[in-house]
Input
Amino acid sequence: MSDIWVIAENLPWAATLIAGAASIKNDAKITAFVNGDEAAAGGAIAAGAAEAFYLPLPANAVWEGYAPALSEKARAEKPDLILLSASRRCRDVAAQLAATLDAPCFSEGKNITVSGDGVTVDTLLYGGLAIKNSVTSASTVLVTMGAKDFDPLPVDASRDGPVSALRLADNAIAVTGRKPRAAQTVDLAGALKVVGVGRGVSEEGDLGLARELAQAIGAEVGCTRPIAEFFKWMPEECYIGISGQQIKPQLYLALGVSGQAQHYFGIRDARTIVSINKDKESLMNANADYYIVADWKEAAQALLKAVKK
Ligand SMILES: Cc1cc2nc3c(=O)[nH]c(=O)nc-3n(C[C@H](O)[C@H](O)[C@H](O)COP(=O)(O)OP(=O)(O)OC[C@H]3O[C@@H](n4cnc5c(N)ncnc54)[C@H](O)[C@@H]3O)c2cc1C
Output
């Protein structure tokens, strides 16, 4: 293994994947493909890439429209491993590349190692209840990875390396119109504190109290999947877990969340977990650093009063 590609929708994510690539094989040549301009590609070099391509996005293009150009380049250069950000659009790129290159693609892979047998990757099964360990000897292997799987290497602005633009294929999808969706103002992935709302918050009107508490402690508000997908009380981008957002805040405060494995997967890297749940035996309480056995509304009102003091 000598060539690792990193494909990311933004520079911070590219930087974490570059660190991941360096940890997998420290003498590999790392080539970064990052959405943005020349400065973004320069940032990828400073973050540890040997060569970087920037993928500018004209108004009438979509980022996943770069898949054919990336595929053509991969066919010519045959990278051993391609790490991609596990964002919605980049997953689309991963699927297109895997299909056109006839290469295996591991979603949200972990613990990637390289040995004489090939590439070994861990992926989660059964909503995070089991880990599957796969070994492949394919000549190119694709793995999508989370935004926080690695800490970026220290930025070294003095690093030098070739930087150029990748061109969209002439027949790339052209956007003929755009319809704005409701503004998404929540930055759960980057939040230092997150209040998580679960089904224990049984009335949509009670979300106001959860939001008030979150605002008082400087937190964003996220939720469990049923709150977003079934009740539609919050946008789907707000749900946390294996099939939603994976977060790494300093504090996660769970209100009426049962803490099933699929949700816990998304908060397992939180530094401190506090659960308010009326069921003492709930999984959320069992996995929390601190828990309060109470009706969440009573506890939240008491916390709010204390914080306001
Ligand atoms: C393939 C798959 C993927 C999934 N992916 C995700 C995912 O990414 N994210 C996710 O969140 N879920 C996911 N799920 C669903 C997950 O399994 C759980 O069903 C879900 O997380 C439960 O949500 P909840 O905690 O809000 O609700 P419940 O499990 O219903 O828990 C409600 C909790 O609130 C407590 N409670 C009730 N009333 C009060 C009160 N007044 N005060 C305090 N506590 C109270 C209860 O004791 C209980 O613990 C997935 C499921 C599958 C099968």
User: Anything to note?
Assistant: The chain has a mean pLDDT of 93. The radius of gyration is 21 Å.
